[in-house]
Amino acid sequence: MDWNATLEFARGPFFNFALIFFIAGMLYRIANVVFLGWNKDFAKPRASKGNGVVKSYLRGGLILPFFPREKKAFVNNPITFLAGGLFHLSLFVIIFLGAAHMLAWKSLLGFGWWTLPLPIVDFMAAVGIISMVALIINRFNHPVLKRLSGPAEFVNWLLVFLPMLTGYMMTHHMFFEYKVLFSLHMLSIDVLLIWLPLSRISHFVFYFFSRTIHGVEWGKRGAMP
Amino acid sequence: MTDETIYRHMQDEGVSRRDFLKMCGLVVGAMGMTKMPPLDASGLPASLNKVDKSTLNHVAEAMETKPRIPVIWLEFQDCTGCSEALTRANAPTLSNLVLNTLTIEHHEALSAAAGFQVEEAKQQAMKKYAGQYVLVVEGSIPTGEFAAYCSVGGRSAEEILKEAAAGAAAVIAVGSCASYGGLPAADPNPTQAVGVMDLIKDKPVVNIPGCPAIPEATVGVITHFAIFGTLPELDELHRPKTFYGTTVHDRCLRRPFYEAGKFALSFDDEGAKQGWCLYKLGCKGPTTHNSCATIRWDSGLSFPIQSNHPCLGCSEPNFWDGGGFYQGQSTPLEKPTLGTVGAAGAAGLAIGAGMAAAAKAKKEK
Asked: How far is B261 from chain A, CA to nearest CA, in Å?
């Protein structure tokens, strides 16, 4: 197998296609939701909408388990909360604050930013990978999650896990030649980019939609404590 | 083989015993021979095959007993930079060893003779030392219908290489061009140039990539073959592990700054003046296997990163087509233009809006 050609393909035309597909696909998904419009609500607001939005985001953030009223949800499935939270944090740190990834952003956007030292990014990558393993084990074992999971959930998990695993192996020069791992890393990212708009991983956009809209609705009705 | 031993020849050249032993020490150091290679492989007489000898003694004894090795050096699509580098090798005695002491039977750039005479001399050497000589190749080889783009004496490079390789004991490809095609093979590869290992499959081929190849590595491999009669341990790209076992990044003097996240962001900022890591200026050190950071250039004076320039990754396959020299290796090679993104985005938006409108209409009905 010609890994040089594979790498050039994965970094070149395939990435190009995947990125265009991703952008078009995500805009399609967003338009599909936004252009449905809102029903008119003639009721008088009981409380501040803005307050509701802020509280909605706070509840969704990491402080959630410490809210007494959310405690039950946390106790029922602590692994989803802890590993899920750590996983998202690690994803943010690696994708935006890793030097190599920032350079990729810089070449796409035209501007760069400050990055974290490698050992910290590396530690977060390990945290992310361990969290993902914990999450998939939990998904298989948890009585409720088990019944909620279909093939799409496992594909989601796999397609997010592969870039993380190959990226970690690549930085540590593990088992395979660098260009092999680099090719696999880029290929897995290209596939993930194509899969993103087709899957529920698109929650990286819709999460903010739902948090804001729910915040507004709850805030207006005074349902936010 | 030539009749006289390497040591005998050096004595005739006026090299003292002390200088000879010093040179043996250099060979041991240059090849990083911390332990003895397998004794059987050395081909030494049993009386000398004693385990209690140090590597230095081993090398010295081999030089005293082994006959000189004939070398045939071919040049194809190259710039002679690797030969140039060799004549300026950091240890003069080492390059001397290859250029003078080992019999270089044929080298176009260094040869005093020219034209048909030099071709004839090569033919004679190939006949005389058939199956024994080391073939060193510099430069890539054009193939197929483009084979004529590099011809010597009316014959194509491909033909010359195959003829010379047939009688060689081992083939050493020196430089990135001979190893992987190098610059001549850069996109769109107008002469369909390839490296030696793509054409020669039936002989052991050693690659010493680099632009130019580090002369100590070239000398080390040839000397290893001369002394032990075997090739050094190679990796999957046929590179000697001694010189290509680690990346430039692994041994870089600026590595601590990389770990600490201290980067130069332009060539004249404070970071560059402080000698911080050049990763964000496109350094390919983390992916480049070579010993620039340890052996360095010009008598160990410096290497690109020490001189405040990022590594270009010249010893890796396809380095010319691996993206911009000043762009990180993590950056995509191709990216969508604003027009493409706009068109695709607009299409996505339009379809999405259409679907939403249809759903809304259906609901209102």
From this structure: 4
Identify whether residues B309 and B176 lie together within a single domain.
no
Residue showing tokens 């607009």: B346
Amino acid A67: pLDDT:
60
Query: For position B40, what pLDDT does the model report?
Result: 47
| Contact flag B352-A16 (C-beta cutoff 8 Å) | no
The pLDDT value recorded for residue B51 is 46
Supply the angle between the helices B55-65 and B17-30 in degrees, to the nearest 10.
Answer: 120
ipTM of the complex as predicted: 0.70
For chains A and B, CB pairs below 8 A equal 125
Residues B212, B265, single domain; the answer is no
Q: Residue B216's pLDDT is what?
A: 83
Q: Answer yes or no: do B240 and B266 share one domain.
A: no
Rounded to the nearest 5°, which phi and psi values hold at A214?
A: -60, -40
Cα–Cα distance, B15 to B324 (Å, whole number): 48
Residues B231 and B316 both lie in one domain:
no
Would the CB atoms of B344 and A182 count as touching at under 8 Å? no
Residue A39 within a domain: no
Give the CATH number of the domain where residue B194 resides.
Answer: 3.40.50.700
A35: in domain: no
H helix runs in chain B, sequence order: 6-12, 17-30, 39-42, 55-65, 81-87, 92-96, 115-128, 157-166, 175-180, 215-228, 241-244, 255-260, 270-274, 292-295, 338-364
Using a CB-CB cut-off of 8 Å, the residues of chain A touching B344 are 20-21, 23-24
Residue at A97 is within a domain: yes
CB-based contacts of B45, cutoff 8 Å, min separation 6: B65
B231 falls within a domain: yes
pLDDT score, position B351: 87
List the single residue in A26, A27, A107 with the smallest CB-CB distance to B331.
A107
User: How many Å is the maximal CA-CA distance in chain A?
Assistant: 67
Q: Is B201 on the interface with A (CB under 8 A)?
A: no
For residue A18, name the pLDDT band (cuts at 50, 70, 90). very high
pLDDT mean for each 10 residues of chain B (365 residues): 72 82 76 54 52 67 79 91 79 64 78 86 90 92 91 90 92 94 90 92 92 87 82 88 87 88 88 90 88 84 91 88 81 83 86 85 78
| Cβ–Cβ gap B351/A108 under 8 Å | no
For CA atoms B156, B159, B161, B167, give the dihedral sign: negative
User: Nearest-CA distance from A165 to chain B in Å?
Assistant: 16
CATH code of the domain in which B312 resides: 4.10.480.10
Question: Quick one: B204 and B145 in the same domain?
Answer: yes
Name chain A contacts of B345, Cβ cutoff 8 Å: 23-24, 27
Q: Which residue has the tokens 């783009």?
A: B149
Give the count of domains, chain A: 1
Q: Is residue B193 part of a domain?
A: yes
Instruction: Please give the residue of chain A at the shortest CA–CA distance from B359.
Output: A36
B266 CB within 8 Å of a chain A CB:
no
Same domain, yes or no, for B89 and B237? yes
Range of the domain at A128: 46-221
Question: Do B232 and B260 lie in a common domain?
Answer: no
Query: Which chain B residue is nearest to residue A7, measuring alpha carbons?
Result: B322
B318 CB neighbours in chain A (<8 A) are 4, 8
Parent domain of B266: 255-321
Residues of A in contact with B325 (CB under 8 A): none
- Whether B125 is in a domain gets the answer yes
Question: Are B331 and A30 in contact (CB < 8 Å)?
Answer: no
Cβ–Cβ below 8 Å for B259 and A112: no
| B293 shares a domain with B226 | no
